[in-house]
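User: Here's a structure from my thesis project, written as structure tokens. My advisor, Dr. K., wants to see whether a designed sequence matches the one we expressed. Can you design one independently, without my sequence as a hint?
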């Protein structure tokens, strides 16, 4: 069991799912913890659990969509512990639905939580890591950050953004002894899938142009849930990223791993499009509504 003794680990999205599981495993290894999430009651319950391992923990209720709260989180962590050694940007959710039917407000909220909050917290903690000449930043991306899929385009866009930011940041901060690592899970047995289904239902018009895919989308969601890894299995590569002396730039956490991702990314777009159409039962083209007869110019038959 690799030790994290005397390491200060800040985890966002720590009230449930992957964040909670990582917090418990880090506590077993002796880490001091800063726990952040919106749901204060659940966050306090996680704090109580990790403290049973004899470690110190600070719970800071935080809405990652609120930059002021995110910056306050960083300040409280530094005031309490003096430093943050490992930042785990885990908070996020999935806004699903056809790109056309996700309104601007929903898309903005998705980026605020999944991208802007991550960016703000990383910026707030980098100076103290740079001054000490060490630190690790783990950004939770997804398979969806490498392969875009129909009806999750907005969520995919945020995870593609996380991948791009991470790749740039990794090179920029390496001279200061700071490591940036991307974690790419596939389906995981957490409340993520339930929230994703709720966000899908909230935006899709049951009588709109995409109504024919509603049943198929629900069926596929259930299929993905059956493929989901238990959260404990996903924690394993995250712990490796936290403790490996020379960590990889990416750790995959899904069946098939990097090989499956590589093969998918090599697939020609036309072939990938045909595959997704088949998966979702989509026609190559939809019937074009009859257009009203245009009036003719006066005197011209």
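Assistant: Designed independently from the structure alone:
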């Amino acid at each position: 069991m690799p030790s994290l003794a005397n390491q200060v680990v800040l985890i966002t999205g720590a009230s449930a799912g992957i964040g909670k599981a990582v917090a418990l495993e880090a506590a077993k290894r002796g880490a001091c913890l800063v726990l952040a999430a919106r749901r204060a009651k659940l966050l306090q319950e996680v704090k109580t659990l990790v403290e049973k391992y004899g470690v110190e923990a600070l719970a800071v209720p935080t809405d990652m969509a609120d930059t002021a709260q995110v910056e306050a989180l960083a300040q409280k962590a530094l005031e309490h512990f003096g430093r943050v050694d490992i930042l785990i940007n885990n908070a996020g959710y999935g806004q699903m639905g056809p790109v056309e039917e996700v309104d601007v407000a929903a898309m903005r909220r998705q980026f605020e939580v999944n991208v802007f909050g991550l960016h703000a917290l990383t910026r707030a903690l980098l100076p103290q890591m740079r001054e000490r000449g060490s630190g690790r930043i783990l950004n939770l991306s997804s398979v969806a950050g490498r392969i875009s899929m129909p009806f999750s385009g907005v969520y995919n866009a945020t995870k593609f953004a996380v991948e791009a930011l991470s790749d740039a940041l990794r090179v920029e901060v390496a001279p200061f002894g700071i490591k940036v690592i991307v974690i790419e899970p596939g389906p995981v047995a957490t409340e993520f899938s339930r929230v994703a289904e709720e966000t899908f239902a909230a935006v899709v018009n049951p009588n709109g142009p995409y109504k024919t895919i509603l049943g198929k989308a629900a069926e596929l969601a259930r299929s993905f849930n059956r493929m989901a890894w238990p959260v404990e299995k996903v924690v394993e590569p995250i712990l490796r990223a936290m403790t490996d002396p020379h960590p990889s730039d990416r750790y995959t956490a899904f069946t098939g791993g990097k090989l499956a991702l590589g093969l998918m990314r090599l697939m020609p777009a036309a072939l990938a499009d045909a595959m997704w159409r088949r998966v979702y039962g989509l026609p190559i083209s939809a019937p074009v509504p009859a257009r009203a007869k245009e009036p003719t110019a006066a005197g011209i038959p």
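When you compare it with your expressed construct, this may help: The chain has a mean pLDDT of 87.
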